[in-house]
């Protein structure tokens, strides 16, 4: 099969073409743009209406002609307003595509039919989800879509039954940050409401950014750090993927095999999508590979248990932060669809988790989850359990007076199954549901000292550990550092020494009694003097390391008494606003006799405050907790956990995971600051787990300094062979675009590494070089890239260095994007006396101008491009004879900027006429004849362009096409050129008139 891709183009050869070839092997039909456009009436249309109508007829044979037309009309693009948020529109359309039946616009499409018993509403099917091969799968590349100005050409678009479900942007693997470029320069641009490509995202299922070696998937509106890997193609093995793509699989091949398998694609569309509102913004989420994998395995296990009677479903361990609640929700959804809607019971051991899971299910639109509010409520729910999804805590089963029981075959999902599942409550739960099948979900590794979790719940179904999670970008690495270890008295010997000095007059029995009663780890931790000293250090650390980048903090206190002391001391120090969230009672007092009423919160208020804290606009910066919010509390804006509580094993791993959630591009790690010496016992604590399972759980912060040294060397290596003070040498050094791209990538890595260390003194040796590198970067960006490049993309600590240094060195004039324009560029270039530097700059600017303006007059700028490329080749051959190359490049640049003067010289009043003339003249070969034909075409089509909305009207396009055809054939243009000329003239009309 022949694919219409650019030859000798790295992006096409290494990413686009392999993707097309693999998709065809997977059963997709390839259509080139030329073939696809034969059935498109308008380049603004995103649906393939002929294929969509065919699918409606095929999947709904009972519909009459009016019903088919009505269904087609109700799903067409014009029915969905552009002023809605993309995610809102996308959610409404998905509901219609998959046949949801909910309120609020999430209803299926129905048409009125009469089958002999009067009018009735019939739900329209747009896909056959049960038989994937019964659908129409098309893949095309360079799909043209016209906007308000220029068209776009997404690299690959996948259509199923005429709907554009998937868009793929391909980049060359050699360019810096290819995935980031695909997302920021393509996907985010395409979604800009002002550009007019909205319709493409009305129907979109997900987006893929790839360069072959790297591949990420995301949804509409997602930022760069929200795109994720699909790192394996379960249930396909790597060997099967290799056979499918006929090469050693890269990330691109694994993602395509895993997500774009026909059955998987439809399954993901129907069963693995949810929309959540976060900080007043609707977010679309689809399953990650580990969630899809785990649910698929659990469904398979349940199918197996139909034959093998057992209550042991299996164990799923997915590390904290990897979306375990959504995995449970999607598993429950599959149970409804594939197992006849059996009763489902979701069990936790904490009220907070119970509430959180219920909220997740409700927000995601799961139908009618019910949380048991009391023992009697649970008893009544299970008495008639059929079809119900019930949330409860395990403690409700263990009350001796309860009569909870059901003989139904219940599917039980037990959250955090490593806790409380082996004692009285667990026994009572199993007695209450004797025919249940139990699946265990846990966010921490299984204790290797005994495998009780597996004995109770069955085999390990799926594991998603720390290292895999970090590699996928689902979670961040967690660094730890110890601070003020002398503040904590640890170990019996130390306490004995203190007693010998302080209580020298007491006998041994009295000292032992006193020690056991009063000198405990908790008592020491509560000492006000100790907490005061910690708060001094904590405030300094937070305000210098964390707050500048806009992140928040949590403090874990050893007791409620200690939490109150922390709050008081932080307030005395005028620290950033803090808040306590803990249980307390009105009228309760501390050891000092002072009431805690000012810190009292009702359960509802605690939930409200914990939710408000997640919002960057909420003034509270530091949250003080004791036991609450250490499990299941997702708060990505928190970067640091100040730990002053002795935690062990599972509790330790769950607590530190509060800081591992991705938030924005500048949050590259979470941090644990240890004030109680717990990290001294860290290896001992982790030793209870399998070594492979806890690999990568925590990393010492010293690693960040090693990273900074490496990134520093990479950036400064650019200047080893040139005079660092010579701007001319710098301009010549970075003349190749590849050199500029690589330097930009290395500079960003240096910036990120420095941000992780600042403001520690260890960063000092690198600051001067960073300031120098930032100045060089601005210099080359200003002259080579031009205006409009944003500098606001780094952590605030690093950004302050850049800002201060730029002002200090007096180059703010150079960096003002309003001052350097295409037309005054040459006067700025004159500042460089070095001929090579000036030549490099004007050559690059000529290339930049031609690239930007070529869409408005392709023929004119194509000639200039040919002149430029020829001159570049000549320069390469005569490198030492450069005296006249500056003038030659300057001449091309001036011609590129003076297109209007050339147009007026030829007598054309509009850019459209000049551009059309450029297309006709080479074919006609007669200047005057080409002018006359141009004038005739303009005269014929101008009246149509006066109509409102003509660019999107198929009737206008037909009339104009006919008029252009008549003019061209009357003037004897070759028949084999006419169709292509009509297309080009129409494109120019839509762009320029």
TrEMBL record:
MF terms in GO: ATP binding; DNA binding; nucleic acid conformation isomerase activity; type I site-specific deoxyribonuclease activity
Primary enzyme class: hydrolase
Record key words, sorted: ATP-binding, DNA-binding, Endonuclease, Hydrolase, Nuclease, Nucleotide-binding, Restriction system
Known EC number: 3.1.21.3
Reaction(s) the record says it catalyses: Endonucleolytic cleavage of DNA to give random double-stranded fragments with terminal 5'-phosphates, ATP is simultaneously hydrolyzed
Any matching Pfam family: T1R_D3-like
Helicase ATP-binding domain sequence ranges: 305-463
A GO biological process held by the record: DNA restriction-modification system
CDD domains: DEXHc_RE_I_HsdR, HsdR_N, SF2_C_EcoR124I-like
InterPro entries: Helicase_ATP-bd, HsdR_RecA-like_helicase_dom_2, P-loop_NTPase, Restrct_endonuc_type1_HsdR_N, Restrct_endonuc_typeI_HsdR, SWI2_SNF2, T1RH-like_C, Type-I_R_enzyme_R_subunit
Family affiliation: Belongs to the HsdR family.
Protein's UniProt name: type I site-specific deoxyribonuclease
Organism expressing this protein natively: Nitrososphaera viennensis EN76
């Amino acid at each position: 099969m022949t694919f219409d891709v650019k030859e000798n183009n790295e992006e096409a050869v290494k990413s686009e073409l392999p993707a097309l070839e693999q998709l065809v092997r997977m059963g997709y039909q390839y259509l080139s743009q030329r073939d696809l456009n034969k059935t498109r009436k308008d380049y603004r249309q995103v649906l393939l209406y002929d294929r969509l109508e065919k699918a409606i007829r095929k999947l709904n044979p009972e519909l009459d002609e009016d019903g088919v037309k009505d269904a087609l009309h109700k799903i067409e693009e014009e029915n969905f307003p552009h002023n809605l948020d993309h995610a809102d529109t996308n959610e409404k359309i998905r509901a219609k595509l998959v046949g949801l039946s909910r309120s609020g616009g999430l209803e299926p499409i129905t048409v009125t039919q009469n089958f002999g018993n009067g009018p009735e509403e019939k739900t329209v099917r747009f896909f056959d989800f049960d038989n994937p091969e019964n659908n129409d799968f098309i893949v095309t590349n360079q799909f043209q879509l016209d906007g308000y100005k220029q068209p776009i050409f997404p690299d690959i678009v996948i259509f199923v039954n005429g709907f554009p479900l998937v868009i793929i942007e391909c980049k060359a693997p050699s360019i810096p940050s290819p995935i980031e470029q695909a997302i920021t320069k393509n996907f985010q641009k395409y979604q800009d409401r002002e550009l007019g490509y909205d319709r493409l995202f009305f129907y979109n299922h997900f987006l893929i950014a790839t360069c072959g070696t790297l591949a990420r998937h995301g949804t509409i509106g997602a930022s760069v750090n929200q795109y994720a890997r699909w790192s394996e193609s379960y249930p396909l093995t790597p060997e099967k993927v290799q056979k499918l793509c006929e090469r050693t699989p890269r990330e691109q091949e694994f993602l395509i095999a895993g997500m774009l398998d026909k059955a998987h694609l439809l399954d993901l569309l129907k069963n693995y999508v949810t929309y959540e509102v976060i900080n007043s913004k609707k977010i679309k989420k689809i399953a990650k590979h580990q969630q899809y994998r785990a649910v698929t395995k659990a469904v398979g296990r349940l199918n197996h248990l139909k034959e093998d009677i057992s209550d042991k479903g299996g164990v799923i361990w997915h590390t904290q932060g990897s979306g375990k609640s959504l995995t449970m929700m999607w598993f429950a959804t599959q149970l409804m669809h594939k197992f006849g809607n059996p009763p489902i019971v979701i069990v936790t051991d904490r009220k907070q988790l119970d509430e959180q899971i219920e909220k997740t299910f409700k927000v995601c639109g799961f139908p009618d989850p019910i949380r048991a509010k009391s023992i009697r409520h649970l008893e009544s729910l299970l008495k008639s359990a059929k079809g119900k999804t019930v949330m409860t805590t395990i403690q409700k089963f263990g009350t001796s007076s309860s009569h909870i029981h059901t003989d139904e075959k219940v599917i039980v999902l037990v959250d955090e199954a490593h806790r409380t599942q082996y004692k009285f409550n667990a026994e009572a739960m199993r007695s209450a549901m004797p025919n249940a099948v139990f699946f265990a979900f846990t966010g921490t590794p299984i204790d290797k000292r005994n495998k009780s979790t597996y004995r109770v719940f069955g085999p390990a179904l799926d594991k998603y550990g720390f290292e895999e999670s970090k590699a996928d970008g689902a979670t961040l690495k967690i660094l730890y550092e110890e601070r003020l270890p002398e503040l904590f008295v640890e170990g019996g010997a130390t306490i004995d020494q203190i007693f010998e000095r302080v209580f020298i007059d007491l006998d041994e029995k009295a000292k032992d009694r006193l020690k056991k009663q009063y000198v405990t780890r908790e008592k020491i931790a509560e000492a006000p003097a100790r907490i005061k000293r910690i708060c001094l250090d904590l405030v300094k650390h937070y305000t210098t390391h964390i707050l500048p980048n806009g992140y928040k903090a949590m403090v874990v206190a050893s007791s409620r008494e200690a939490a109150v002391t922390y709050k008081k001391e932080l307030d005395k120090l005028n620290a950033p606003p803090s808040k306590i969230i803990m249980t307390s009672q009105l009228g309760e007092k501390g050891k000092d006799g002072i009431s805690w009423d000012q810190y009292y919160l009702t359960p509802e208020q605690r939930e409200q405050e914990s939710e408000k804290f997640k919002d960057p606009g909420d003034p509270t910066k530091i949250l003080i907790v004791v036991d609450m919010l250490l499990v299941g509390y997702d708060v990505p804006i928190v970067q640091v956990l100040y730990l002053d509580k002795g935690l062990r094993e599972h509790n330790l791993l769950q607590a530190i995971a509060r800081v591992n959630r991705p938030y924005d591009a500048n949050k590259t790690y979470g941090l644990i600051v240890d004030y109680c010496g717990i990290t001294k016992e860290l290896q001992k604590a982790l030793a209870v787990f399998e070594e492979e399972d806890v690999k990568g759980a925590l990393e010492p912060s010293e690693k960040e300094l090693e990273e900074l040294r490496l990134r520093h060397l990479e950036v400064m290596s650019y200047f080893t062979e040139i005079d660092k003070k010579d701007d001319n040498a710098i301009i010549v050094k970075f003349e190749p675009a590849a050199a500029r791209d690589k330097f930009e990538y290395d500079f960003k890595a240096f910036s990120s590494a420095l941000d992780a260390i600042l403001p520690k003194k260890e960063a000092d040796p690198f600051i001067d070089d960073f300031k120098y590198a930032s100045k060089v970067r601005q210099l080359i960006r200003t002259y080579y890239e031009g205006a409009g490049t944003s500098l606001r993309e780094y952590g605030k600590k690093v950004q302050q260095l850049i800002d201060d240094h730029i002002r200090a060195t007096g180059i703010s004039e150079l960096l003002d994007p309003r001052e350097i324009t295409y037309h005054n560029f040459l006067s700025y270039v004159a500042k460089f006396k070095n001929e090579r530097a000036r030549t490099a700059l004007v050559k690059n600017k000529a290339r930049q101008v031609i690239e930007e303006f070529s869409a408005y007059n392709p023929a004119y700028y194509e000639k200039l491009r040919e002149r430029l490329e020829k001159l570049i080749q000549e320069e390469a051959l005569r490198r030492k004879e450069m005296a006249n190359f500056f003038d030659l490049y300057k001449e091309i640049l001036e011609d590129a900027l003076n297109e209007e003067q050339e147009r007026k010289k030829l007598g054309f009043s509009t850019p459209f006429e000049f551009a059309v003339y450029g297309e006709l003249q080479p074919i006609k070969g007669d200047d005057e004849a080409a002018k006359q034909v141009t004038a005739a075409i303009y005269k014929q089509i101008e009246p149509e362009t006066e109509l409102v909305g003509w660019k999107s009207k198929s009737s206008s396009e037909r009339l104009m096409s006919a008029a252009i055809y008549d003019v061209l054939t009357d003037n004897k243009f070759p028949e084999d050129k006419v169709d292509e000329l009509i297309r080009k003239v129409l494109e120019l009309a839509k762009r320029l008139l």
